[in-house]
Write a structure and sequence with these properties.
By secondary structure, the protein is an alpha+beta fold. The protein is built from two helices and twelve strands. The chain has a seven-stranded antiparallel beta sheet, with helices on both faces.
């Protein structure tokens, strides 16, 4: 049964983006040496949802190829599926990846767009036994991502 978070959503807005996430989950923000920002929403289990704001504006295909190559290097049994959809209201490059780790099936969703001043990568991941409840919430968070006026 999906987790109902409709009454407990917080708004996040910074770095030119905004989205909603459950207030019962922890949020972390980090910057790297390139000035890219990574915002991660952590569940109580092993699942997580992350958005990365890439200021160098790489193409969605470049982002995707790099991410998938990193997973292929780590997991030899990786299955890859292309999907269509949107991110931040824009047509997105989307891949679903599946692999086994510690005898558990893991699913990763990668969505990329180039939007004005930056590119975005949304990445959520979890094991199948947790995603039954949490995947709809991750999809709701991803669906709430929008481009905001940059104030930083």
């Amino acid at each position: 049964m999906p987790l109902d978070v409709s009454g407990c959503l917080n708004d996040y807005e910074a770095h030119g983006i905004r989205f909603q996430y459950p207030d019962i989950w922890e949020i972390q923000e980090e910057s790297d040496t390139d000035g890219d920002v990574v915002i991660t929403v952590l569940t109580e289990g092993t699942c997580f949802w992350t958005i990365r704001v890439l200021n160098s504006r790489p193409s969605p295909l470049e982002i995707m190829n790099s991410c998938v190559a990193a997973f292929r290097e780590e997991y030899e049994d990786l299955d890859e599926y292309s999907e269509s959809g949107v991110l931040a209201g824009l047509p997105a490059t989307i891949r679903l990846l599946e692999f086994s780790c510690l005898e558990l099936i893991n699913t990763v969703s990668l969505s990329c767009v180039r939007a004005g001043e930056f590119s975005l990568l949304v990445w959520w991941q979890g094991t199948d036994h947790e995603l039954g409840e949490i995947r709809p919430v991750f999809e709701k968070i991803s669906g709430s991502v929008r481009i905001a006026r940059r104030q930083d």
